[in-house]
Amino acid sequence: MAFGRSSRKRRPVEPVTLKILVAGGFGVGKTTLVGAVSEIRPLRTEERLSEAGRPVDDLAGVEAKTTTTVAMDFGRITLREDLVLYLFGTPGQDRFWFLWDELSQGALGAVVLADTRRLEDCFAAVDYFERRAIPFAVAVNCFEGADRFPVETVQAALDLDPEVPVLLCDARDRPSVRDVLVAVVEHAMARADRIREPATT
Ligand SMILES: Nc1nc2c(ncn2[C@@H]2O[C@H](COP(=O)(O)OP(=O)(O)OP(=O)(O)O)[C@@H](O)[C@H]2O)c(=O)[nH]1
Ligand SMILES: [Mg+2]
């Protein structure tokens, strides 16, 4: 039989693919995070920061930054043999808000990256996901020189529901980013389970 032997081999697992957004304020490290974990060469849409944008592009804390995302970042990570995440990094600047609705279509969950030196920059992302009931985790990108706060302080400052995971991370570090992504997926799955099986009283 022509295909006899190969048909006895273990069938490759068809992985579940999930879409995760990576959001947060301007220059908080979204593009860096996607690039750190992606197993494919990440798609980037970077443009050079221009003199014209200087009054609105606040570079405090990220003075070395020379480019900004104008559409999205895209990357992929296999969390398990049967679970692949597609990562969509959003543009950080307010003038690109109109892209968010498009990018968030079909997303399982989101990472909101935060920088404790300018925590208010992530308020808009937190509001966006809360309003649309998209599960998210907050990841504090620990830049050198930024004060370290316990996760409880960040949770309180952002007025988050207690079940929203808050983690400290380094957006440049693959294992650290992986932990954040696992937290988002677990949180989203747990919430989906709760919705499917409402508590019986
Ligand atoms: N020290 C330090 N620098 C970082 C870290 N993450 C990002 N950076 C730097 O901070 C700057 C901003 O990073 P990006 O990844 O471009 O930020 P972004 O959120 O994609 O920015 P926009 O798309 O413009 O909103 C870059 O110069 C990075 O090299 C970090 O964890 N620590
Ligand atoms: Mg970016």
Class by helix and strand content?
Answer: alpha/beta
- Share of residues in strands: 15-25%
- The number of distinct β-strands equals 8
The overall number of domains is 1
Mean pLDDT: 90
Radius of gyration: 19 Å
Distance from N terminus to C terminus (CA atoms, Å) equals 59 Å
CATH superfamily: P-loop containing nucleotide triphosphate hydrolases
Question: What is the 3D form?
Answer: globular
The helix content, as a percent range, equals 25-40%
Question: What is the CATH-assigned architecture?
Answer: 3-Layer(aba) Sandwich
CATH topology: Rossmann fold
Total of helices: 6
Which short descriptors sum up this protein?
Rossmann fold; six-stranded mixed sheet; alpha/beta; globular; binds guanosine-5'-triphosphate; binds magnesium ion; two-stranded antiparallel ribbon; about 25% strand; about 200 residues; 6 helices; single chain
What would you note in describing this structure?
The structure is a single chain. With 201 residues, this protein is α/β, with parallel strands linked by helices. The strands form two sheets. Strands 4-5-1-6-7-8 form a six-stranded mixed β-sheet, with helices on both faces. A hairpin with a 2-residue loop joins strand 4 and strand 5. The model has no long low-confidence stretch (mean pLDDT 90). It has six helices and eight strands, in the order αβαββββαβαβαβα. It has a single domain, classed as 3-Layer(aba) Sandwich (Rossmann fold). Guanosine-5'-triphosphate (GTP) binds next to helix 2 and strand 3. Keywords: ATP-binding, GTP-binding, Hydrolase, Nucleotide-binding. It comes from Streptomyces finlayi. GO terms for molecular function: ATP binding; GTP binding; hydrolase activity. This is ATP-binding protein.
